[in-house]
Amino acid sequence: MNPRVACFTGRFQPFHNQHLEVVEALSHTFKRIIIGVTNPDISKLQAHNASLHRHTDEANPFTFESRVRIIRKSLTKIKKVRIDIFPFCLDSPSTWNVPAETVFALRIFSPWEENKLALFEAEGYKTLSLTAPTQKLSASDIRQSLTSNDGDWKSLVALHAVETISNEWSVTNSSKVGT
């Protein structure tokens, strides 16, 4: 039996070209892809030993709603598969809104992804480890480029998402003025 549902999780701060590559690869095998947006409530971030920055405000500038808009714009060319985007709390498996037959897809770059792989397997899910590119694209670099306003980040994200990221970044930064 071929698996029908894949889940790809991440903070997506922001969603970038290597995230898009994963979804495109999954779209050739699976009928449905669930994108689980971790750290959905950026007011309740928690530290984790496997990743020392994932809980910081600087690493989480976009709200869940902003990330959903960015992801949807990034995926406009993927038509042949159903894609659902949900909040996904890694530390609360009882809230995972995924079917039992879901296969969790990951690229292993660091102990953080190894930790997630072990978590999904411990919860009884099948996992799919995708080949990681030799050069990891870092959302931290994109955020730094956004902060510098140098425009270099635009080539690192889907063309359809550039305007949305710019707009969401502007909203994020304008809300921090005076705080």
Please describe what this structure looks like.
With 179 residues, the chain is an alpha/beta fold. The protein has helices spanning 17-27, 64-74, 111-122, 139-148, 162-176, and strands at residues 5-10, 32-37, 82-87, 103-107, 126-130. The chain has a five-stranded parallel sheet with strand order 3-2-1-4-5, with helices on both faces. Strand 1, helix 1 (17-27) and strand 2 form a beta-alpha-beta unit. It is built from five helices and five strands. Helix 2 (64-74) runs antiparallel to helix 5. The chain has one domain (5-176): Rossmann fold (3-Layer(aba) Sandwich).
- Number of folding domains? 1
CATH topology value: Rossmann fold
Give the CATH architecture.
Answer: 3-Layer(aba) Sandwich
Q: Judging from the principal axes of the Cα atoms, what is the shape?
A: globular
Strand line-up in the sheet with most strands:
3-2-1-4-5
Question: What is the number of beta strands?
Answer: 5
